């Protein structure tokens, strides 16, 4: 059991490290994209170079995210196999299925909107109505929304599982990291939908991953797990 | 502190429920409208152009689609009692200027509109200010430049020197009028001159329609020259030299709003992930026309030939 737990911690730590790096790259790319602003003829060449860099960095971040996700699934598989908690098996299932199903649903949303645009013969963005945040959300499709919620749910389940590990091992960094991770899980759908809190959401998720990486790195299995069962 | 399996499930389900409800609420949230009776401020900044136009390469552009949406929003929103257009634009594509002009005219027919020219309000940008009930210009702004010009640049001499030959197969004599690969014929020059005259007539008619009773010296007004705000006031192109605050105060007065009535800037929404995913689709091919009808002064710096109103 101890071997599985140690291996699980190690993999979850690696997952958090990779997620920190990929989140930081995505946040930087987002900042860079906003700073670039409107293209002008005079800096067109520089923009092309910038676009190339963004694509390369984006791909790198994507690969890192994928690697992080694989580590995460393997880590929770180890935790499930340790037999400490059945909830860790639920967590494994959530982190495995949540992102896949979420991504498929989001792609479905994109597909539906694309088909609508094609059948309407229009290339203009969907119409906006209402005020404040609401006006940003017109044109939203339910599959997209379901995808976002599903991904957030997977993160919530994982956050609660990490919180549990933090309590069981008395690891303060893990407890803090899981709380920040849960905040990040709640914040990310709001940021995605509103387009207003992207910076804050990125910062919170980077902070959460850093805390989790440090927490899993410093946490050891010291026995006492049986008490949890 | 140790949590039971049941507690973990309950906590997870509760948090997921909270997030789901918050997300759904946000997704359907339309928010309360702004306070009743306010002045909407809409910025018209940069070269007027549709977002997919090649003009967007010329620098900061005011996307006509976004502007039209904002003007439409101001038109439909009953809480908007008056509109101030804050203009700093040299004009732009004729199509974009025309579309915005028509929308401003529609807006001005239903509620007071005051145009404030901050720095540049020339050519197409001046045209869109015409339907306003009042045109205010900043002291050091440049106004006017009403007229049409066409610029056709040909590369035939350069292509000859490089030994490049261009063959054009056309269905009609004038199908490639304005081609940069050869000198225009006399007949083509006449066609292009007629186009210039026709577009100018339209512009002139609009100026006379909206400011016919105010424009003092039409020959100078329609000479195509730009004017300082003070000169523009003298010849009747504008109603007042003033500040943005003056324009806002006048808009409130025209709408019968109290002096402390709120002013709210209408802005296009910042692109979020949804817009990035769904909103930027385009089927416009990356072609640059050999010339394009512009309503712009000063003229653009790019070398390709175009027809301009300016």
Question: Largest sheet of chain B at a glance?
Answer: 8 strands, mixed
Q: Give the helix/strand class of chain B.
A: alpha/beta
Which bin fits the share of residues in helices of chain A?
A: over 70%
Arithmetic mean of pLDDT of chain A:
80
- Give the strand content of chain A: under 5%
The ordered string of helix (H) and strand (E) elements of chain B is HEEEHEEHEHEEEHHHEHEHEHEE
Mean pLDDT of chain B: 81
Which stretches of chain A are poorly predicted, pLDDT < 50 over at least 5 residues? 121-138
Kindly describe this structure.
The complex is a heterodimer of chains A (229) and B (310). With 229 residues, chain A is mostly helical. Chain A has one domain. Helix content of chain A is 83%, strand content 0%. In chain A, α5 runs antiparallel to α6 (172-194). The longest helix of chain A is centred in the N-terminal third of the chain and has 38 residues, at 44-81. Chain B contains 10 helices and 14 strands. In chain B, α2 (64-76) packs parallel to α3 (94-108). In chain B, the strands form 3 sheets. In chain B, strands 1, 4, 6, 7, 8, 10, 11 and 12 form an 8-stranded mixed sheet that branches. A 4-stranded mixed sheet of chain B has the order 5-13-14-9. Chain B is α/β, with parallel strands linked by helices. Chain B is flat. Chain B has helices at residues 5-28, 64-76, 94-108, 124-129, 156-162, 186-211, 218-221, 229-234, 244-255, 273-279; strands spanning 38-45, 47-49, 61-63, 80-89, 91-93, 113-122, 134-137, 142-144, 149-151, 226-228, 240-241, 263-265, 293-296, 306-309. Classes of the chains: A mainly alpha (229), B alpha/beta (310).
Record the SSE blueprint.
The complex is a heterodimer of chains A (229) and B (310).
Chain A lengths: L1 H35 L7 H38 L5 H34 L11 H6 L4 H28 L2 H23 L3 H21 L6 H4 L1
Chain B lengths: L4 H24 L9 E8 L1 E3 L11 E3 H13 L3 E10 L1 E3 H15 L4 E10 L1 H6 L4 E4 L4 E3 L4 E3 L4 H7 L23 H26 L6 H4 L4 E3 H6 L5 E2 L2 H12 L7 E3 L7 H7 L13 E4 L9 E4 L1
Parallel strand pairs in B: 1-4, 1-12, 2-3, 4-6, 6-7, 6-8, 7-11, 13-14
Antiparallel strand pairs in B: 5-13, 8-10, 9-14
